Amino acid sequence: MVEIIRKGELPQPKEVPTALREAAAAAPRITLREPRPVGFPLLLSSDMRVIEPAVAFLHEHAIQRAHTADTVRTYMEILYDWFDTLEQSGILWSDADTVDLVAYRNRMLQNPSAHTGRPYSVRTVNHRVRGVLRFYQWAVRHGWLRTSSLVGRKSDFALSRRVRAHPRRYGDGADRSVFVLRQFQELPRPLSSAQARELLAELRPPYDLMARWQLYTGLRTSELLRLAVNVLKDHSTPRSSQPAYRVVDVTRKGRKPGYVIAPASLLEETDAYLAQYRTAWLRRATRKRHAPSRCELFINRRGAAVKKNTYQTAVRGAGEACGFKAFPHLLRATFGCWLLARLERLAKQGAAINPLLIVKILMAHEHIDTTDRYLRAVSIDPYVLADVLDTLIAGRH
């Protein structure tokens, strides 16, 4: 069984045997070119040997390329699952070939996830397969392997291919033809106004306010968790002179700078949260000698920053209590559909706007094809949800 061990802090001299105290005292003064931070994942085999190529791959992406923590965690989960599968099958990672990768893919299709107990989605299967292929391409490029049947070959199977006039968006022909499954993107299914109100009423602080931010601005969960208190500090003008909207600078996916347009009602609710819940939780954490987080906007009752899994669990639980499925990304999709329906209505009334382009910019989509999914989702009746955004913006929720 492959294990994941997080790198810890160096021990203090008093925490080690007497013979090692001199070395423990000198260790913090040693200068390293590329030190791995505390919490860096180390993959170990069942006999507690470090899986060097996997750790080197993670080191390059985390330290040298400075990818985000979410990206490194995703790579780590893919490598952990792949190496654990190989170890259980008695296959050396350097000997893995196309047959092993196809068997790995098919196993995910046939068996549910051991972590969630739910079947793997096609998107997850393809994501993990592409991650394995990326790792072997990296291993050959950096000399960990001289060659691999998973790199640089179309396939080991005789398949006829149809020539396409336009390039594919996802991957190249090599991984699309054999390893990667055909994937159909589902159209967003936005919440109705009644479902949104019921879900928000079911959530407890601070998760209700977090859900409102996603529902009113379309932030991704990772972007929402990165919101800091200082982005709202300039919100100090008299209430009577405040506009109906305010532009709030945010850090988008991939550390790209961006902004969202937050309605005044949302900012007022955020001010109330800062003055009441957040202040009280930080004071209680200080009294209990915890290390309170003072930069993140959203914290829990213990004064620590809200974690992604905790927020997701809260939204899913509230949805189950309300009798429908709900998850954080659904709130973002609901914002996109509501906004697009409203903009489509304005365009039909003669407004000189491009609804699709506006939604693409406000939701920070990389490709217009992603935004087009929202257009198709509301194309059946674009006026059904048009009044919802006006209701939310006006604060009548």
Detailed description of the structure:
The protein is mainly alpha-helical and 397 residues long. It has 2 domains: 3-177, no CATH class; 193-393, Intergrase catalytic core (hpI Integrase, Chain A), CATH 1.10.443. 48% of the residues lie in helices and 6% in strands. The chain has 15 helices and 4 strands. The protein has helices at 21-26, 52-64, 69-89, 98-110, 122-141, 173-177, 193-202, 207-217, 221-225, 264-287, 308-322, 328-348, 355-363, 368-378, 386-393, and strands at residues 3-6, 41-44, 245-251, 257-263. It has a two-stranded antiparallel sheet with strand order 1-2. A two-stranded antiparallel ribbon has the order 3-4. A hairpin with a 5-residue loop joins β3 and β4. The chain is globular and about 70 Å long.
Note the total helix count.
15
**CATH architecture identity of the largest domain:** Orthogonal Bundle
What form results from the Cα inertia axes?
globular
User: Order of SSEs, N→C?
Assistant: EHEHHHHHHHHEEHHHHHH
Poorly predicted sequence stretches spanning 5 or more consecutive residues: 154-175, 380-392
The first-level CATH class of the largest domain is given as Mainly Alpha
What is the structural class?
mainly alpha
Radius of gyration: 25 Å
Amount of beta strand: 5-15%
The description of the largest β-sheet is: 2 strands, antiparallel
Kindly state the percentage of residues in helix: 40-55%
Alpha-carbon distance between the termini?
A: 51 Å
Question: How many strand elements?
Answer: 4
Number of domains: 2
